[in-house]
Write a structure and sequence with these properties.
The chain has helices at 6-20, 282-308; strands at residues 35-42, 44-58, 61-74, 83-91, 97-103, 112-120, 130-137, 141-146, 151-156, 159-164, 198-201, 204-216, 219-231, 237-245, 252-259, 262-272. The protein is mainly β and 309 residues long.
């Protein structure tokens, strides 16, 4: 029996992990301290929790750090029974991931401990024009992909190799193809949704079709029903029905994603969003209150003075 390579095992782990944490989960508006838990159904069954933990940066670009905890079973896989993993994502102000860190559970007993993926975006791209995959562990390996040039640069053990590839055959060179390269991406909370909204982002069409109340274990939410349709990176038809809250901060309550008959669903079962108060720093609050009180006293005395005259 042939021994499965470490890269092959990494691929077996990362493909369901990347797709299990897939959007369309609106994230751009959620403040630090927010926590959303979704119940998944379809190819991957289990729970997925998003936790907004703070701010960070990637390649000098500011981004919102989100920790994702995934507990799923792959319904049609015999290579493993399930995945329990925590990963970190950093999103820009349009809700697009700038960096992902995927931690490989120790029970896989691989030489790679984590995978780091960095993305570069321009304008309203629904696929990044450049990305870098790093396999980090006992030995390091990296793949830089320049999609516009059709080039992959691989570095391993001090050796550099270049490959010519097309968008449709990245899997022939990469250990796995990140989910951001297989489905078009737009964070719906970064768009000013309203009734009748319709717009194309590259190959992806976004259309608001109705306003509906969505009942979930987390409560009843008035939502925009949004249809997403387009083609994946390798040309497969892609569509999603996504329900996004009308009230801000907006987030996804329920979604159904369909790629050539393969469906994945998710609905929110727990929502924790901190109340957003005034943005005045605490140190300035006391002087502001004192100034307001003094102004009220002054105006009151002035009115009294006018009354005496």
């Amino acid at each position: 029996m042939r021994k499965i390579s470490a890269i092959a095992l990494v691929s077996l782990f990362l493909i369901p992990l990347a797709h299990g944490v897939a959007q369309p989960i609106a994230i751009a508006e959620l403040p630090v301290g927010s926590k959303l838990t979704y119940r998944l159904g379809g190819v991957y069954v289990g729970n997925k929790t998003y936790e907004v933990v703070g701010w960070s940066s990637s390649q000098g670009r500011k981004c919102k750090l989100v920790r994702v905890h995934l507990i799923v079973n792959a319904s049609e896989s015999f290579f493993y029974r399930g995945i329990n993993s925590t990963s970190e994502f950093c999103y820009d102000d349009k809700g697009r991931p700038l960096q992902e860190v995927l931690y490989i559970p120790s029970e896989f007993n691989l030489s790679y401990k984590r995978v780091e993926i960095t993305y570069w975006w321009e304008d309203d791209e629904v696929f990044p024009h450049r990305f870098l995959i790093k396999l980090v562990g006992e030995r390091n390996e990296s793949y830089e992909v320049l999609l516009g040039e059709g080039t992959v640069i691989k570095e391993s053990n001090g050796r550099t190799e270049r490959f010519r590839v097309g968008r449709e055959n990245l899997s022939k060179v990469l250990p796995f193809v990140p989910e951001r390269l297989t489905e078009p991406y737009v964070d719906l909370s970064s768009i000013e949704l309203k009734g009748g909204y319709r717009r194309r982002y590259g190959e992806l069409e976004v259309k608001v079709v109705s306003l509906e109340n969505v009942q979930t274990p987390a409560g009843l939410f008035p939502c925009y029903k949004v249809l997403l349709s387009g083609r994946t990176e390798d040309g497969l038809p892609y569509n999603s029905t996504v329900y996004v809250t009308v009230r801000e901060p907006r987030f996804t309550t329920y979604y159904i994603t369909n790629i050539i008959g393969i469906k994945q669903t998710g609905y929110v079962v727990k929502v924790e969003v901190p109340e957003q108060g005034f943005s005045i720093p605490y140190l300035w609050l006391a002087p502001a209150v004192a100034l307001a009180v003094l102004l009220m006293i002054f105006l009151k005395k002035r009115r009294k003075g006018k009354g005496v005259g």
